[in-house]
Amino acid sequence: MTPVLIVCAHGTDDPDGQAVVLEIAAAAARRLPGVTVEAAYVDVQEPKLGDVVDRWVGASATVVVVPVLLTLGFHTEVDVAEAVSAHPGAVVSTGPLGPDPRLERALVDRLREAGAPEDAAVVVAVAGSSRPEAADVAHQVVAGVQSLWPGRVSVGFLSAAEPRVAEAVASARGMGPVAVASYLIGPGFFQRRVDKAGADVAAAPLGAHPLLVEVVVDRYRAAAAGLVADQSHPG
Question: What is the reported pLDDT for 133?
């Protein structure tokens, strides 16, 4: 049986954010004919990841979990890991979607869709984390966007780290127009902060951008191939 793909998101109370995850799952399903694709969540929303994994394994399916999360953190290392470890040999998970150069290209697409002028200074808004590796990822994303964008690119954090997005926007203000690129999956609490950060242009989050969906599909295919190979040659 072809492994099931579970698109695993954080979860949100925002209806538009909820719709984005379903759009990503539906777009992945269109690119993976014959693969069952389902969305699950680690917080806020139902169904919870562990429940969905248990149901599919109970039906004798194998499962690939692709976290629709942009960096390593508690949810990937605890929630997702626990759901996988409960079913050794039947369930595998991939890493988070980022960093990946395709996501940086998608950020630039979102900036241009929002009408950001090519000479605008760009602040890449990231969620933020107290983990030092999260800051490293943020700066890697900034470097990737800088390689694609003519204007100056810097980082702003939405929580946990400095500078905050509004501060980064204010710092960039003397260089002409300022745009914010949203390194987020979908609308919600953090995107509202992006929208209120004082930039001339606030881009939409990544959402179901085709390049993000491509990353999901590629992660699934690689993990599914490994899972099938392991089952074909146990031990």
Answer: 79
